[in-house]
Amino acid sequence: MITLTQYSQTDYFVAEELSPQEAAKLVDKTKINWLDIEDTGKVSIDEISDLFDIHHLIVEDIMNLEQLPKFERFDDLLFFTTKMLSFNQDEDLIVKEHLSIMIVENLVITFQEGLPGDAFDDLRNRIKVGKGMVRKYGDDYLFYRVLEAVVNHYHKIMEKLRSKIDYLEAKALENTSIDMMQEVIDIKKDVNLLRKYTIPMREALGKMRVEANEFIEQTSVNYFQDVQDKLDYLAASFDTSREMLRDLMDLHHSNQNNEMNRVMKTLTVVSAIFIPLTFLAGLYGMNFRNMPELNSEWGYPAVVSIMLLMAGVMAVYMRMKKWF
Questions:
Q1: Which domains does the chain have, with CATH numbers?
Q2: H-assigned helices in 37-180
Q3: pTM of the predicted protein model
């Protein structure tokens, strides 16, 4: 599906479900044009590349869904590819979608993989109602807004993961016998996935700020610095989160060791109580002939009473020592 959003300070126009030919005819270089292309199949990409004279290397990066974030500058355009991430609450996992952005004179083209939903609903609404400065500035500001929307979703996911870590930490302190290792491993995988795309994106953005001076107005430089700062914050958050996860794993192992020690302590106490009882049972189970207690009418009750008394005394003594 191809959607064209076209605007200036005073005008606004949107057209949906366009063919590549229709979209190319509607593009007006006197206004800012945002061409959003979803479900980037090979046929539609080939048509778009012919109509807008897109370099074949860019087409390869658009079609390569495993491409890490990168930036490339060509003679008359900028190209930026990254991953758009969202958190699926129902399945409790991170969903990734390949996103490529191309900026040429008064035209920004976004190529999405075609998964349901994206990060641009708020941006579309801002353009529609004229909120903020998006309709006052040029294509470079729209480019910044697209990148910011992607990075803001990264932040939301990071905050979600941090909340999970805090919850697990509180739960581990409250209930030391809980098994949370699998949850810790799952969170660690999500943090590593987020880091996998954040670090290359930060490097690509830094490269763009150096090489794209001709495409970015001076008034927009600070906005891209803001995106860079958010990515720097995320990079620092990864180290903090990974340290917290290591602490959680250490706490889990410590809780497991303490639980095992408690079990071994209980077994030791029980064994200690039964050792003298076992001695008495073995002593009177030898069946020697000259054992007067065996022929005594009160022999059996006496031995049992002694056993119970010894077990009681040892249990009280160990309890006083707080061994259990």
A1: 2-255 (3.30.460.20), 256-320 (1.20.58.340)
A2: 42-51, 56-63, 121-129, 139-174
A3: 0.77
